[in-house]
Amino acid sequence: MALRIAFVAAECEPWAKTGGLADVVDALARALGQVGGGEIETPVDVFLPRYRAVDVPPDRIIGEQVVQVLGPGAERGLAAVRIIDIAAGGYRLRLVDHPAAFDRATYYGEGSTDYPDNAWRFGLFCRAALAAMTAERRLPDVLHLHDWHAAPMVRYTERGPAGPAVLLTLHNLAYHGWTPRAATTGLGPEWTGRLRPADVGIDLLRAGIIEADLVNTVSPGFAREALGPKFGMGLDDALRARGGSFIGILNGLDTELWDPATDAAIARPYGAADRSGKAVCRSDLLGRLGFDRADPGPLLGMIGRLDPQKGFDLLAEAAPDLLADGFRLVVQGSGPAELVEPLRALAEAHPRRVALIDRFDRELARRIYAGADGFLMPSRFEPCGTGQMIALRYGTPPIVHATGGLADTVVDEHDHPGTGTGFAFRHPTATGLRWACREFATRFGAGGPAWEALLDRSMAVDFDWRTGSAPAYIEAYRRAIELRRAGRRAVGTSAKRL
Ligand code: GLC
């Protein structure tokens, strides 16, 4: 029988997005509906909070109901939550609408401070999603939870073989949904976790890791790294305790959404067989940035959340040397002032060689992927990463820190001459970054058939969700069901060891 799947997630492109989580939720939900064999019942459901910024198009509403749920905070009593179903093109989006929880300026908090009641907000989100599922005739076979926001679900679903199987996907271990005990969450002591020995509070992600039937992260490389203290972010013990029920599944890429041959935002479409359009895109981008079109120096692009994870500070540190080497830089990203300011200062000092776009601009991002010569991802850690996959597809070789999903997706031309697809450095330092940029510049400057061959290899990498990643998730769903039936929870091995 076809599997019925429900996603529970805090982001979904294009409705709500701060990072790669949104892209993956949208693309995987659609891809699951497309992989052949009728293994997955369609449409897949995707539960998402209805934030203030989510516009609900009236003509796409296909259902609406109100569920009554006990707010996780007993002191808040019974809450009425509206569920608005939308035909989202490939899946059914189920918006969980409760203004007290989600009608706020941002999704998670202000500046870098989380809302103090996040555990309550997302606890309510999960309860309401479960109530909406229960109101339908059949519960999903698998609840696919994404990151800490959906983790409270593990405490609300029925335990034992009769309940839906639970797969928890870890997109980012840096955010736990951490609430100090002092904060009023209304959640019971069973939620208590330990981030550091002296720091006791509520750690939603830890609870999810302990109790889900199967846990995965978004690349095999990061799945290995997360088992150690350096990348485990305080959760490595819980992940090690999962043994074989913690796995890595590499993200895919939505190859229809990201295709230089059909991209309407770029100056001229191009494909692997004829890259002449890419030169037009480059010239267009240089013009828009106010850079000198005649300057042959390589143009490097970087796009992302300005988060310490992403290594923008490494770029700021390496920039003077890179400029001396003849590089030009275009950076798109917004974030806290301490990360933006050094880049702004660089852009102001070198207006014709460094550009900072400190906002999220979808069209300009596409023009950067297409028009830049190389694409930077010096992330300190990276569970998978999306930018490098897009850059490969657009024939813009990535320059990456060899970590997590970046190491899994980019083959370093220095280590593997003649078979590489980009450039990778081992140590996340300004020196490492500059070294890899020079490796890039040597080959870019030489041009010719060797460079064209590298671009051919980069554009040929197949990240289509439907090829590998979506089928891998279907296999994971089956495994989660088996584990649930085998009563892993009842045995509770990992819980006991913790
Ligand atoms: C998070 C991770 C990123 C991953 C994305 C989608 O944003 O930091 O590496 O690609 O989730 O899974």
Q: How does CATH name the architecture of the largest domain?
A: 3-Layer(aba) Sandwich
The termini sit apart by 36 Å
Helix amount, in percent?
25-40%
Proportion in β-strands? 15-25%
Number of helices: 20
At the fourth CATH level, what is the homologous superfamily of the largest domain? Glycogen Phosphorylase B
- In round numbers, the mean pLDDT is 91
Oligomer: single chain
* Number of strand segments: 20
Shape: globular
| Uncertain residue ranges | 490-498
CATH fold description of the largest domain: Rossmann fold
In the sheet with the most strands, the strands line up as 3-4-5-2-1-8-9-13-14
- CATH class group of the largest domain: Alpha Beta
Structural class: alpha/beta
How would you portray this structure in words?
The model is unreliable at 490-498 (pLDDT under 50). The longest helix is centred in the N-terminal third of the chain and has 18 residues, at 118-135. The protein is an alpha/beta fold. The protein has two domains: 3-252 and 467-485, Rossmann fold (3-Layer(aba) Sandwich), CATH 3.40.50.2000; 276-460, Glycogen Phosphorylase B (Rossmann fold, 3-Layer(aba) Sandwich), CATH 3.40.50.2000. 38% of the residues lie in helices and 19% in strands. A nine-stranded mixed β-sheet has the order 3-4-5-2-1-8-9-13-14. Strands 17-16-15-18-19-20 form a six-stranded parallel β-sheet, sandwiched between helices. The protein has a three-stranded antiparallel β-sheet with strand order 10-12-11. α10 crosses α13 (362-371), α11 (312-324) packs parallel to α12 and α11 (312-324) crosses α16 (430-446). Alpha-D-glucopyranose is lined by residues 19-21, 24, 171-172, 218, 251, 382-386, 405.
